[in-house]
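Thread: quick sanity check before group meeting

JM: Hey all, I'm pulling together slides for Thursday and realized we never actually wrote out the predicted structure for the chain we discussed last week. Dropping the sequence here so it's in one place. If anyone has concerns about the input, flag it before I start.
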Amino acid sequence: MGFMNEIGSLLQQYKGASVSAPPVNVEQDFRQVAPQVPQSAIAQGLSDAFNSSETAPFGQMVSQLFSQSNGEQRAGILNHLISAAGPGIASSSVFAGLSSLLQGHPAVSPEQAQQVSPETVQNLAEHAREQDPSIVDKASQFYAQHPTLVQGLGAGVLALIMSRMSQR
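JM (edit): ok, ran it. Output follows.
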């Protein structure tokens, strides 16, 4: 049996997998599959998870991923979110901390990103989604590059991602 057949066989086990009752080995299986599939497959599965009514809201999941990220990863997602949120965030009292970081800077640096709270990121992600729904796909593509972070979303989300990958 070829390697791709093994991955395909493993993914087939996830057809119809449940977020509420994920398979026991989902974390291990995801670690095995993630490096072997195109990032676009992980991104699409993650996008489906971000949009699912079975998972936590988009902002909450992005905040969770942000909490687990290093400075460069934090800056990367913050810059995507800020771009999607539009210029109005600079004048919003909800995002006062962000506007002070951005003054005179074209982008948030890794050092600046370490100063941003997960709660601010959650609010920013929800606001960005309202302003530009494509941020969900952009965030999915960004985090697909960091599958070890995605594992931190938990077994239910991983089961949904694996299920979506099995359908492709």
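AS: nice. Residues 71-85 form the longest helix (15 residues). The chain has a mean pLDDT of 90.
JM: adding both to the slides.
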